Amino acid sequence: MIRVAVAADAAVVRAGLAALVAASPDLTVVGHPVSLAELPQLLEELQPEVVLVDLEDDADDAVLDWLPGLVPSPIEGEGVPAVSLVILTEETAGSWMAEVLRSGVRALLPRTATAGEITAAITAAAGALVAIHPDLLGAMLCALPGQPRPPTEAPEQPLTPREVEVLSMLAEGLGNKTIARRLQISEHTVKFHIGSIFGKLEATSRTEAVTLGVRRGLIML
């Protein structure tokens, strides 16, 4: 039996995920489902093999920052970390997804993933495999350095007016907080727009996105 801890901020989501895990004959829930804030303190006590984490679309940016560091780096000669993280997320910024995978997170799935997809990801993570849902894979690959890309042509998916606004502000050198304040949206939503821009323009950095936007006449400097 694979020992699984469940973490989510919404009580109804915690209950649902715990029931989903408990319904699988190969998985067992350890302890009680906890909030994200409680997870770091209770992780040692629970001693799970896999932690299933739900990230809401308005998850605090601080959570996005410390979550990858929750998984200890493998000790030399001991193989993979003792705890594997499976994340359900609406975060689509390829750079963030690539970073969490490099840090030791084992699986990334959208929050709309099916029960079968979630249990399969947990099983894979427990076996030291990496699982990435197809819906998230494209944006993540675009963020990896050194990935060959076709010559820059007009984007297949045009940027939305809001994405053009965000791209223009990136060209001004503005940070996420300033952009969020100007547009009166959350920083997480800004990150979502930036991830979408990167995917549509096949860019791997803000500078590259701005350069491609200028070349394609989307924005002016």
UniProtKB/TrEMBL annotation:
Listed CDD domains: LuxR_C_like (cd06170)
Keyword flag Zinc-finger: no
Residues with PTM 4-aspartylphosphate: D54
Entry GO MF terms: DNA binding; DNA-binding transcription factor activity
Oxidoreductase recorded as keyword: no
UniProt cross-references to InterPro entries, sorted A to Z: CheY-like_superfamily, Sig_transdc_resp-reg_C-effctor, Sig_transdc_resp-reg_receiver, Tscrpt_reg_LuxR_C
HTH luxR-type domain location: 152-217
Domain Response regulatory: 3-126
Gene Ontology biological process terms, A to Z: phosphorelay signal transduction system; regulation of DNA-templated transcription
Pfam families for the chain: GerE
Keywords per UniProt: DNA-binding, Phosphoprotein, Transcription, Transcription regulation
Protein name: LuxR family transcriptional regulatory protein
